[in-house]
Amino acid sequence: MATSRILGPDGQPITTPDLAEPQTSRLTHLQRELQRHPTRGLTPSRLARILDQAEEGDLISQFELFEDMEEKDGHIASEMSKRRRACVLDWELAAPVNASAAEQKATDQLSEMMLEIPDFEDMVFDLTDAIGKGYACLEIEWHRVERYWLPKTITHRPQSWFTLHRGYRQELRLRTNNVVEGAVGDPLQPFGWITHVHKAKSGYLERASLFRTLVWPYLFKNYSVGDLAEFLEIYGIPLRLGKYPSSASEKDKATLLRALVGIGHNAAGIIPEGMELDFLDAATGDPAAFELMISWCERTQSKVILGGTLTSGADGKSSTNALGNVHNEVRKDLRDGDVRQANTTLSRDLVYPMAALNGLAPGGLRRAPRMQLNAQEPEDLTAYADALPKLVAVGVRPTVAWAHEKLGIPQAQAGEAVLGAPAPPPPPEPPAGAPVPPTPPPPPVGQAAATATLPGAGVDLPPPVLMQPQLARNMAPALQAWIEPIRNLVESATSLEAIRDGLEQLLPGMTLDQYATLMAEALRAAQLAGRSDVLDEAASPR
């Protein structure tokens, strides 16, 4: 196989086998393998032996046991379904930090390609099988769509198909008789697998699964359920006792036993003459002991899986709303941890292979887009609508992107229709027959306009005062072009020297002669204004 320039998740060049052929397509011994059911007749000693075998490298019986537990115990199946389905969320691809325009474009293009993945939500659910069993391996079958490599199918493979090789790091391999690099089993083909290892607890992978903690409550509950079934089978039924003469033959004894059984179910039967049937008190007892043991086992299972019991059921005693909210927060913490681990796996084993095979990750895994399953719950819209205007009014400067993220509202793309503030209602129509209000006069111009804008309109004022509003209106466009850059300069400067240097850069094309001319005109205007003030003061009566 040829070596390509595509780098795997470990940064090493990968070989390019036929991606369209899954690695397990030729491993018929795994495909035809029938699973056993170790929970049949399970005893404490047999359970301990299964767990010991897993630690010694034989994982088959342990994972077959895990399958049986989830299949036979309705409480485990229900709680695991809650935890796993909480991870099936809306998703998006995030560009790398400080992404360039090319990287952002590649992220957008890859997001469109991800929409072509069949049954993406089911794939995420299969991935979360690792929460209970320690790891989950999903095999990718690739195909070409036009000029792009896309996943055709993503198939969950049983954990019993794999073996663990212990070295500096544990390595998952397909369970074959091949010896590769001194270890038994075939290494998993790069870009051919989504391998999710879930850390429910620290330690070797064969001991780090959640179901290893659940096997003992499952066993104890299984015993209690069996005992309760036997108790209920005879509860309330009177004891039937048959008596036969000492000379009775074996045939007569068998006839009497059949009569006892038949009377218990059919309330009718026959016996030979000389034999007797006695009915004693009905079987009594209290099933509370069995129910107590079953309840303890199920509460322990809920604590292990969901971190509490009040998100599973209410006992009517300690089930307060406040305590239920606390347990629900613990469940959310578990969900956030599950989603974080799933994001890492999907970014490495699904998003990056798609990007690399289609030329959208030239910077390798480090600069590839990242998967984000969105577990963040939107904030209270009412609270933010009330608080944000007040915070902005006192100088807080939140970004638009931050507000959209907190509120869970996607930002509009170019060309998309957006909501806006409602238009003000039109003025009410005057009633029929009402007098028409007079048309307002046209706005004044020139000196009249300047006078009309003053508080004391109509009062005789000196010409300089009358000309101030007109001067302000005429100078506003020119001054605004200077004021904004100067304001930005002052706000960003750290010293007076920086302000001085910045002012020189605002008009870099102005020469010293031009500066001198402007300063002379400014001084002349100031001198004329001063002379006007002196003349006005001299003319005023004392």
Question: Would you kindly provide a written description of the structure presented here, covering whatever features stand out?
Answer:
With 542 residues, this protein is α+β, with helices and mostly antiparallel strands. Among the domains are: 241 residues, no CATH class; 67 residues, no CATH class. The chain has 17 helices and 12 strands. A 3-stranded antiparallel β-sheet has the order 5-4-9. It has a 3-stranded antiparallel β-sheet with strand order 6-7-8, with no helix packed on it. Strand 1 and strand 2 form a beta hairpin. Helix 8 packs antiparallel against helix 10. It starts with a strand and ends with a helix.
**What is the makeup of the main sheet?**
3 strands, antiparallel
Radius of gyration: 42 Å
Taking all residues together, what is the mean pLDDT?
Answer: 80
Number of helices: 17
Count of β-strands: 12
How would you write the strand order of the largest sheet? 5-4-9
Overall geometry: elongated
Low-confidence stretches: 454-458
Structural class: alpha+beta
Terminus-to-terminus distance: 109 Å
Helix proportion of residues, in percent? Answer: 40-55%
Taken as a percent bin, the fraction of beta residues is: 5-15%
Give, in order, the helices and strands: EEHHHHEHHHEEEEEEHEHEHHEHHHHHH
